[in-house]
Q: What sequence folds into this?
């Protein structure tokens, strides 16, 4: 699995605002990779280019062994006419039923399956939304702040479990949490804010797996590299 | 909400009547121009039964016309929500046609179809149809992105689901629009009866107008207002029931 951007230039339609100019990078999958950068730097635009929602750009965007890309974000909602458990049942094939139950349990959502989406906390909403994406057929899943408002311990548990359960999938994790991306992601594309010489750089993260211990030195180095690039 | 509607109407009607009587006594107008409370009461006792039957007749036409309009607006709204050529055409056509005053077409309808039930029904339906259509079109063509994204992204967003999501998210607006359109349907039917029909409360108001009998008109207005308030209150109550039933699935 591979994702490569070659000299991508993109401007918001009808404006002179350049979001990317000659942006080039490569990421290899499967695994957890990240997009990192200050707000408004173009992370979501880049994700939308990947899903095909934005096609008004120049340059080459190539993928290898990635046919189905899904994009989830943290403001998504489930319809309010039935409980979240019912919604999950409806979007799951019979073969996926065991996986659904496993994910619901791992994400700590079992007690809330009978609740309506509007009755959940923000973190619970994001977890239930992410579960339904993980139950779909995909090669790449873009998680745009998909675990926002989830506490740190639960978030860590969820990410490690996703890595263990979906070893053959390509994840792009969009987050503003520098420790998290440094810890759990392999290739981190850092999109720089205005005033930086290099518009983007790929930094190698620690790519922590379940059962592995954290290399503090490596983590600190990664975080420094990201800070310098951003 | 039913009793609130009735209270609101009674307050507005009472204020209107008080203003009218205030003008009468202030300007010392005769009972022929503005009848006094006793004359109004006497007229009320004389005509209420007949006028109530007329209001029910008018209301029946208005309700049937409104149901027809809701069905048509729902259908056209669902077709017009699409970003296809047909959807755009329906939307543009709806916006352009609604700009034409339907009441101006009423005489043509009476000439072609006579002064019976069908003419009244058609005018009632047409008058409440376009505002309903514009609201339904507006609601149905506005994506609920945060909900639809997942279904669109995973290829599950069939038109039925899209309509269901948009209707559910806007059920409050839809209920208000439907309740509001009841007034339009009633107004349309009364206007039709007033212009040329031979039945209904509009026809009775026309006769009262020829007789210059303000008392009769005031009684008719009271009966129209109270019936419409009850009907609108019932529509709102039914809207709340639908939402409740939908949410408890």
A:
């Amino acid at each position: 699995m591979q994702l490569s951007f070659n000299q991508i230039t993109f401007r918001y339609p009808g404006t002179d605002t350049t979001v990317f100019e000659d942006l080039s990078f490569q990421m290899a999958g499967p695994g957890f990779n990240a997009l990192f950068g200050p707000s408004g730097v173009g992370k979501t635009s880049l994700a939308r280019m990947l899903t095909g929602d934005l096609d008004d750009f120049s340059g080459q965007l190539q993928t290898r062994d990635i046919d189905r890309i899904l994009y989830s974000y943290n403001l998504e909602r489930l319809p309010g006419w039935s409980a979240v458990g019912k919604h999950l049942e409806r979007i799951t094939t019979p073969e996926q039923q065991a996986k659904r139950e496993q994910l619901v349990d791992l994400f700590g959502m079992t007690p809330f399956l009978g609740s309506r989406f509007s009755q959940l906390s923000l973190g619970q909403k994001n977890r239930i939304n992410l579960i339904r994406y993980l139950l779909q057929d995909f090669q790449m899943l873009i998680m745009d702040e998909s675990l926002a408002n989830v506490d740190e311990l639960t978030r860590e548990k969820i990410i490690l479990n996703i890595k263990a359960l979906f070893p053959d999938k390509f994840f792009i994790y969009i987050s503003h949490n520098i420790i998290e991306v440094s810890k759990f992601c392999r290739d981190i594309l850092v999109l720089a804010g205005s005033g930086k010489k290099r518009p983007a750089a790929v930094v190698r993260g620690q790519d922590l797996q379940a059962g592995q211990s954290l290399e503090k030195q490596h983590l600190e180095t990664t975080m420094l590299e990201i800070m310098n690039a951003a | 909400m039913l009793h609130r509607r009735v209270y609101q109407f009674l307050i507005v009607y009472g204020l209107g009547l008080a203003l009218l009587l205030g003008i009468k006594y202030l300007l010392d107008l005769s009972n022929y121009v503005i009848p006094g409370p006793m004359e109004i009461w006497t007229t009320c006792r004389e005509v209420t039964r007949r006028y109530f039957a007329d209001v029910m007749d008018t209301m029946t036409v208005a309700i049937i016309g409104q149901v027809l309009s809701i069905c048509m607006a729902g259908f056209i709204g669902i077709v017009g929500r699409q970003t296809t050529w047909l959807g755009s055409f329906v939307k543009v056509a709806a916006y352009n046609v609604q700009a034409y005053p339907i009441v101006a077409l009423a005489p043509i309808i009476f000439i072609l179809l006579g002064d019976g039930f069908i003419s009244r029904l058609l005018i009632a339906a047409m008058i409440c149809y376009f505002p309903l259509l514009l609201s339904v079109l507006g609601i149905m063509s506005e994506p609920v992105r945060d909900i639809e994204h997942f279904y669109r992204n995973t290829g599950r967003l069939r038109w039925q689901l899209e309509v269901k999501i948009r209707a559910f998210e806007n059920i409050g607006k839809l209920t208000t629009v439907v309740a509001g359109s009841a007034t339009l349907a009633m107004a349309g039917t009364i206007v039709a009866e007033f212009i040329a029909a031979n039945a209904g409360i509009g026809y009775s108001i026309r006769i009262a107008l020829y007789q210059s009998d303000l008392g009769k008109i005031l009684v008719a207005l009271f009966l129209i207002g109270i019936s419409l308030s009850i009907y609108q209150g019932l529509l709102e109550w039914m809207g709340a029931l639908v939402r409740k039933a939908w949410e408890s699935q």
Summary: The domain at 2-247 of chain B is CATH 1.10.3720.10 (MetI-like fold). Chain B touches chain A at residues 146-147, 149-150, 153-154, 156, 164-165, 168-169, 246-247, 249 (CB under 8 Å).
